[in-house]
């Protein structure tokens, strides 16, 4: 808090004393603000250039300026600005599946795409190299494939690119819970003719948590990029992402229910003694995690109508170390609550992706009518080599919920515990080759009317592997994935009505059918979405809004029946329906004042089940997240006068109650929450100072992916940046 007060005092003093006029015109600054908060046109959502107003798919985008103003340094925090997206699980740092998970339109999704290609980040994702984050809503397998997309949507991060002038900035940041960070963004032309350009973004962060201020979790990001422009027709891009992490994941409570705890909601369990601020472990339960992503692209403008894009992506994740987790159990004889403490460590775990993609974009007229087409081919290889170890008894120990010295579960004691031989292991290995071809065309028969037709053929060829002690046999599954859309601009470039049909499927491969570890090959899941709504782009582009209604039907869903350790026992349950309404508004209302926000409602339920679970029909899945979500952020920046450059904002997020367990016999609910954040900054030509306070009402709030994970209490950051 002392750091926050000092930073606010410095900011106020500088703002009052500022007398020197910046050479940048206020109109130019205003245009930058409008673009940052309003501009949404993109080539990535449909792999072709389409204006937001003429795109039949709903998507959101968050610009780097928004992150800069709000002092946001991770993609996880950035997504709080996107309507209908709820974080369910922060990064666990495990290879393969260790990244953060989100709920969108009633389905679980994670952040796996970079510039439209597969490049997962399995650690906390640093935002240092992000130009913007895009979130596409609904099943999107037609253009992006089934293996990396969710039925609720997908998240694509667009990275910063080199530019022709020398420039950049360096920043120092400090704040609550021993948070320290240093970062730099440096750009330079390598050759005098400015054909070869270089840019590097790097950051180092060390931080504690509100439960353990001396945790010393460390994160390092190094992300260089290189661009070579041979001529006006041909260019090459090369990018690299290196993320290094040594951290303990956030606290997670599994298997919560009234039967096990005596309570059906987290609020009452807290009142009974669960300590929100207690870590329940000692020190040094770290996981070491590494991410290495390499991306190369060749852009060739063949002629004015045809463009070729060839891209290659290699992604690698690694982890080794502890991953503690907990449950709460009531002793029926004494009604005393206990914490069962366990761990699922990874040992030299790895997962690799290799992808080659070729796209041809065409923009031509046929019979006097415009056509925009993308045709592409994609090959992706996935190599899984994961190993997990955990206590053979299922847990490390069981201790009282309150009044105990929890430091005895630490890196040394858990390591010694495994050395005694009281250990079980579980391996997940396998190689998967995915071959795809797709084509999408937007046909404009008359001005303002755009009709989209797209289709993908995908073949998944699993080479075989191992799940636990059992071999998983090879298999092949393939499917067609169509997509259709129509947009009519009732007022050209201002107001449109749209509708879409989107399809997706997923080869889930083998799943564990019982506690003995027996496996079965699942039939492909299939999802179909119908959506309709309106889009606006009013007052010279200063108000951008969308309103939509969607209905997603899924067949052959896998349902979790229970767990062995942290491995799910599943059945191919039947069918699920998810429908809802989403409203998003981005507005630059008056000079210097911007608002972004939205509200969403999701009604998700099972519609068909196997014979033993008919009583679950009509219930909401426990992975669907909160039905109601809302977000907003209002920001004002002085563009003229003695206070020019001073800005401040306030924002917040609301989520209704989230049932992380939902069966006819039992349920467990995480309470609704409303979290408020505030920020202020002073932006001058050569420097920038910023402060923020997140969760300034000190709200206790929980998120969870069938789990309960406590989130940060009030915390503050201050930053100072030098620009050159």
From TrEMBL:
Signal peptide segment: 1-17
Domain of life: Bacteria
Membrane topology classification: Multi-pass membrane protein
Keywords, ordered alphabetically: Cell outer membrane, Ion transport, Iron, Iron transport, Membrane, Receptor, Signal, TonB box, Transmembrane, Transmembrane beta strand, Transport
Repeat is among the record's keywords: no
Gene3D superfamilies: TonB-dependent receptor, beta-barrel domain (2.40.170.20), TonB-dependent receptor, plug domain (2.170.130.10)
Membrane-spanning ranges: none
Domain annotation TonB-dependent receptor-like beta-barrel: ranges: 270-695
Pfam families cross-referenced by the UniProt entry: Plug, TonB_dep_Rec_b-barrel
PROSITE patterns (alphabetical): TONB_DEPENDENT_REC_3
Domain TonB-dependent receptor plug: start-end pairs: 53-147
Name of protein: Iron complex outermembrane receptor protein
